[in-house]
Amino acid sequence: MVESKNNYVKMTIGCLAKFVGVNVETIRYYQRIGLINEPTAPLNGFRKYPQQTAERITFIKRAQRLGFSLKEIAELLKIGDGHCDEVRTRAEEKRNKIGDQIRDLQSLRETLNQLICECKKGKSDTHCPIVETLLEQDIRSLA
Predict the structure, then answer these.
(1) DSSP state string for 8-54
(2) Whole-angstrom Cα distance, residue 83 to residue 116?
(3) What's a GO biological-process term for it (predicted)?
């Protein structure tokens, strides 16, 4: 890390990656897709990233942990801090989508539980209820 004339820390890409807990390729990828800006290269060739870049990457990682995709995060960043109603709407949409995913996963879990019970009941060396069910579903979906 290096202290700049403006009294805030500037970092090389390696220091920035370590500081925010991502790898260098993640930072380069975020630059390519426009989530963060690439600083201009000075004469010595070492780009220095300001503290704001670290804060932005931290925002991105936190938003990802809440389930937002990088595309959705880019939209949130474009909306900005002063538009709470719009950000709240996006958060509500994400919450509803996660609720749908939870219901779908619970249904899958129940189906798997039923198949496992069938498998335990049958205890056959010649056929497996799980495989049979999956084959039957594939055949029905092709028809």
Answers:
(1) SEEE-HHHHHHHHT--HHHHHHHHHTTSSPPPPP-TTS---EEHHHH
(2) 49
(3) response to mercury ion
Q: What is the distance between the alpha carbons of residues 53 and 36, in angstroms, rounded to a whole number?
A: 7
| DSSP SS3 for 134 | helix
The pTM score is 0.75
How confident is residue 7, by pLDDT bands cut at 50, 70 and 90?
very low
Give the lowest-confidence range in 16-20, 45-49, 101-105: 45-49
Structural domains counted in the chain? 2
Higher pLDDT, 15 or 118: 15
Enumerate residues 6+ apart whose C-beta is below 8 A from 73. 35, 59, 60, 63, 64
Range of the domain at 45: 1-79
Q: How confident is the model at residue 9 (pLDDT cuts 50, 70, 90)?
A: confident
Amino acid at 137: Q
